[in-house]
Write a structure and sequence with these properties.
The chain is an alpha/beta fold. It is built from twelve helices and 22 strands. Helix 3 crosses helix 12 (about 455-470), helix 4 (about 50-65) runs parallel beside helix 7 and helix 7 (about 270-285) crosses helix 12. The longest helix is centred in the N-terminal third of the chain and has 16 residues, at about 30-45. The model has no long low-confidence stretch (mean pLDDT about 95).
Length: about 475
């Protein structure tokens, strides 16, 4: 009798309960996972700025036969549309007209960082330093006492561009922000909140300590030595920083994490992990029934504002150009294409940290190794600033993922009133399309060294490829 009851209870559990699955229990080809993540790590290490990320996307896309829509003017089936060198859209033509349906993935290629100010080089107390302005949601104390690399472009008055990277080659010097020693920090730091004990104006980079000459009466001789080095090697003067975009990012490459090498640590997983998996999904898609678009956007970390952000009419521009090549250009056709689309806003979620479980509702949290994370809504407090996915769209995704044996789970971003955040989803929802956030769970999000599961990375790629090849 007890055995029958147990079987009956087990049957009810299988029928009624949803059990979160572990990706490693379901994916057995670990060599395939490792190979994919090695490719991703190569992309990640070479894409520490949004410009580098887009440049590498173009190289990979062109190797797969994609052509620049602004140059080819042909009705091709593999096209890309670059925007200011910082954002890009990739299009894969399907058998149906895009007005009948369009599958979209949208991710972002910018990450929290330190930007140089317009007058960045100065000297103080016999040292040369760089002034910075932090970009996005950095936790300022995490950026001190670590090696930093300088990545940037200088646009000269004649329009020529000079790329500068210092700190990535093993022979390069690196930069750093020197912290205050604990012996002197009692009042200056220790009594303050974590968000306050490294003020933004003290995120100043050590740039050098050698004067340009031995004449102690010479003014600004430490600053001049740094500017002289820039001039000698790159032909750059102080005024050239006005038309430059120079970023300080963590130096060095991503690394395997853990004795079992099951995780990958590095800078910029948020959100280049979703950008790369979305990119690979469209590059590896052949003969889709429904046309596919991938948007890889800038400025998400500061609200998607600005000419290269998602809060622009870039989606309309891209769809309009495609329709124009097909001879169907009209504003009605553009609106119809976008409103009929189905979109995954490909962005990361916060994985449960074992030491900080109190910030999560553990029943509704994202977990490392849980596969793809679907986030029905983001926002703060009462879902403010969010786009919430419609139940019909979630149901369709459940069916598609289960039919294709995708490991996935659903999560919110922390407890109610604990915090929250926003994504690109609301800007895509503006067009009336079906949209939901979907991506990889990350430990240490926004830190200089974020951690993801290799299994989750590969499963997210599989899920994105399934979506681009689906009919809703």
């Amino acid at each position: 009798m007890k055995d029958q009851e147990k079987k009956s209870n087990d049957s009810l559990k299988n029928e009624l309960l949803h059990t979160r699955k572990n990706v490693w229990d379901r994916l057995k080809d670990h060599d395939l996972i490792d190979a994919f993540n090695k490719d991703y790590a190569t992309y990640l290490d070479a894409s520490k700025t949004e410009r580098e990320a887009v440049r590498n996307v173009i190289n990979l896309a062109e190797a797969k036969g994609f052509k620049n829509i602004l140059k080819t003017r042909e009705n091709g089936d593999k096209l890309y549309y670059p925007l200011h060198g910082k954002s890009i859209a990739l299009y894969r033509k399907g058998k149906k007209s895009i007005t009948e349906g369009l599958n979209i993935l949208v991710a972002h290629v910018d990450s929290p960082r330190l930007d140089l100010k317009q007058y960045p080089v100065y000297e103080d107390q016999g040292l040369a330093l760089f002034k910075t302005h932090y970009y996005g949601g950095v936790r300022k104390y995490q950026w001190v006492s670590i090696p930093l690399a300088l990545h940037g472009i200088f646009v000269m008055k004649d329009g020529s561009i000079k790329d500068v990277i210092i700190g990535e080659d093993s022979h390069d010097p690196v930069f750093t922000i020197a912290d205050l020693l604990p012996h002197l920090a009692a009042n200056a730091q220790n009594t303050k909140k974590a968000s306050e004990f490294i003020p933004g104006e003290k995120l100043n980079i050590l740039a050098g300590s050698m004067p340009v000459s031995d004449d102690e009466k010479q003014d600004q001789r430490f600053k001049l030595n740094i500017l002289k080095l820039f001039k000698d090697k790159y032909g750059i003067s102080e005024e050239d920083f006005f038309s430059a975009e120079v970023e300080l990012v963590p130096a060095g490459k991503s690394r395997d994490v853990g004795m079992d090498r099951s995780m990958l640590g590095g800078y910029g997983h948020d959100d280049r992990v979703c950008a790369y998996t979305a990119l690979r999904a469209i590059l590896d898609t052949e003969d889709p029934k429904t046309s596919a678009l991938v948007f890889l956007m800038d400025k998400e970390e500061i609200g998607s504002e600005g000419a290269s952000g998602s809060n622009t009419w870039f989606p309309e521009m891209v769809v309009g150009e495609i329709l124009a090549l097909e001879g169907k250009d009209s504003y009605t056709a553009i609106r119809r294409s976008l409103s009929n689309a189905h979109c995954l806003s490909a962005d990361v979620n916060a994985a449960v940290h074992p030491d900080w479980t109190e910030v999560h509702d553990l029943r509704n949290a994202a977990y490392l190794n849980g596969g793809l994370v679907l986030t029905k809504f983001t926002g703060v407090r009462g879902k403010a600033g969010s786009s919430e996915a419609n139940a019909e769209f979630v149901a369709a995704l459940r069916r598609i993922f289960d039919e294709n044996d995708i490991t996935w789970h659903m999560a919110e971003l922390g407890k109610v009133d604990e915090g929250g955040g926003g994504t690109i989803a609301k800007f895509m929802a503006y067009y009336g399309m079906q949209v939901i956030d979907a991506g990889v769970a990350v430990l240490g999000m926004h830190s200089p060294f974020e951690v993801v599961s290799k299994g989750d990375v590969y499963e997210t790629y599989r899920a994105f490829q399934v979506i681009l090849n689906s009919e809703f």
